[in-house]
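User: Quick sanity check before I run a bigger batch. Here is a single chain. Can you write out its predicted 3D structure?
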Amino acid sequence: MRYLVLGTNTGVGKTFFSALFVKHLKLAGKKVAYVKMVQTGYPQEDDARLVRRLSGLSEGESVVLLKRRKPVAPAVFFERFPVGFVKYILRKFSGYDDVILESSGGLCSPMSANLLNYELVDILNAEAILVVPNRLGCISDAVVSCLFLGSIGLERFFIAVNDFFPHSGEQQNIRFISKFCPGKLKFRFSSRIKIIAGL
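Assistant: Done. Predicted structure follows.
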């Protein structure tokens, strides 16, 4: 299975979730790989290295495909996103049970002048996991994302709530995300993953 880890925005914990999810799948006996499609701000930023450190994957199993030094949106570098190259590399992991793909930026961040992040779900035949930070304002971000994905007919996605962020129980974020995005909340995580419902 391929999972594409997206976020409601940048800086919400996609890489940390990816590392914990890889570790969770490995403990379940799965053969797992992690692929960061585009890494900007490289080499200071290297999400594959972080995933290796936290999950125990080898260097060949946790990789960055396209690296750019300048820490800006991928669309700055690509007039057309090299989907063919990504698919070619993914064939190298065809013997794996699961491949965790991580995007850059938020759900609708542009990967190139002609491609938004969410479009990669269908292009790469993946299921999407939308990372939502558990903080003030996240209900709207989650619900808008759910409504948008539903409006374009993309139903193959789950929500992972990042409990790392300071939040108040009075906000009842989990309750409202569950109410307005029924059946989508599958994970909560901070230092480890809590499975809300089975995959």
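The CA atoms of residues 8 and 145 lie 7 Å apart.

User: Great, the batch can go ahead then.
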